[in-house]
Structure formats: structure tokens, C-alpha cells
Amino acid sequence: MYAEDDYLMLSGLQHFLFCKRQWALIHIENIWTENFFTAQGQIVHEKADEPFIKEKRKNIIISRAMSVSSKTLGLSGRLDVIEFHRSEEGIKLKNRSGKWKPIIVEYKRGKKKKYDYDNAQLMAQAICIEEDFNIKLEYGYVYYNETDTREKVEFTEELRSLTINSSEKMHEYYKNKYIPRAEYFKNCKLCSLCEECRPRLTKKIKSVSNYIYGAELWKNY
């Protein structure tokens, strides 16, 4: 369990899985630069995020920009959208009759990815809701703006383990102020931090202590 003062940004989980150096530059070194892709992503989220606005459509209540956190993961953030569907398998909501089943919808700029970056972020959000409402969620959705599709994500034990283990590594990196060494790969050119990171040039660890700690971490991968 983590203290509230030690919570990290939930949205950083996707960065961490995509590129641990990118995550460290943003969340440890506080370096951030906008590019076309990050700006477009921000627009997509702004369309979904309207804090404190709720709407009801027949048997569905839609809530936007709900603040959530998890003591287990030590993460906090906001949900783009959470839908509450009327269901006997659901939970009680304040000032609402009947029971309602929560389903999270995360909004993304591009299209479905090969790896579990987006799914792990959704899983982390689900763990937050599970802690808040003392329930277990089975699935959620990721909406991809580029393809206008809503992809169902099953909350498998494998995805849960990936999410929990990744959040633990995030806290370990943050506690030790560890900045992973740069390694160039094809998606680097799409990263808004490419100029700051300099993956083709930055090959040396900054300090002996950082090198020793980094070597120990790499043994575990």
C-alpha cells in the first residue's frame, strides 16, 4: 500500500510501458515538449473530459473526468468516461434507484496498438474503481479516434499482473531517480521528446551510482 503523498500519475503507465526513458524524462526530469501527435491527443481527451458533467441515456449514466486513485498501485488520475449500466450485477449509487454496473471507456488519439500500453492504463483505472466500490470488473473499452472504433478489453490475470508489476517498477525508478539509457528504435521519431532524449547520441549513464542501479534493474528484464 502506498501513502497518498507517494502517488504517481496514472496516465504515466502508458508512457512507462512504451518507453521507460520517456516516462523518466517526463516524470523525474520534468521535461515535456508538445508535437502534433501529443496536441492531437490532448484535443481528443478534451472532447471526452468535461469535469462534473453527468448525463443519462435510458438505462446508462455517463460520467466524465472522474478522479480516481489506488492505494495498491500508488497511482491517481482521471477517467475520460465511465458508464454506469443498469444491472442487477451492479452497485448502488447515491441518489439513484436500482443497481448500476460500471464500465470504463478510455479515449485514445490513434488506432489499436500491437502491445498492451493502452490496455494496462485501462486496467489501472479499473483497479481504482474496484477499490472505490469494492467490486471486480471484468472488462472495459478503449475508444480509438483515428479508426472511430471502441475496442473491448478483457481484464485478464495476465493484464492485471502486467499493470501491478509495472506500477511497482515506476515507483522504484522514481524513488531512485533512475533515468534509463537511451536506445534508438523506429518510433523515436514520433516522440515529442526526441530532441531532448537524443537517442542516437545519448548512450552513457550520467553517474556511477546510476549505472550500478541500472545494471541491477536490467538483470530483472
- The dominant shape is globular
Q: Give me the CATH fold name.
A: Lambda Exonuclease, Chain A
Mean residue pLDDT = 82
CATH class: Alpha Beta
Query: How many structural domains are formed by the residues?
Result: 1
DSSP E strands, number: 9
β-strand amount:
15-25%
Describe this structure in words.
The protein has helices at residues 12-18, 20-27, 36-48, 117-133, 157-176, 194-197, 208-219, and strands at 8-9, 54-57, 60-64, 67-70, 75-78, 81-91, 100-108, 139-144, 149-154. The two termini are 24 Å apart. The protein is globular, with a radius of gyration of 19 Å. By secondary structure, the chain is an alpha+beta fold. It has one domain: Alpha-Beta Complex (Lambda Exonuclease, Chain A). 27% of the residues are buried. 37% of the residues lie in helices and 23% in strands. The strands form two sheets. A six-stranded mixed sheet has the order 2-3-6-7-8-9. A three-stranded mixed sheet has the order 1-5-4, with helices on one face. The longest helix is centred in the last third of the chain and has 20 residues, at 157-176. β4 and β5 (75-78) form a beta hairpin.
List the defining traits of the structure above.
221 residues, alpha+beta, Lambda Exonuclease, Chain A, six-stranded mixed sheet, three-stranded mixed sheet, 7 helices, globular, disordered C terminus
